[in-house]
Amino acid sequence: MLAMFFWAFVIGGIICVIGQLLFDVAKLTPAHTLSLLVSIGAILAGLGLYEPLIDFAGAGATIPITSFGNSLVQGAMNEAGKHGLVGVLTGMFEVTSSGISAAIIFGFIGALLFKPKG
Question: pTM of this prediction?
Answer without folding.
Answer: 0.78
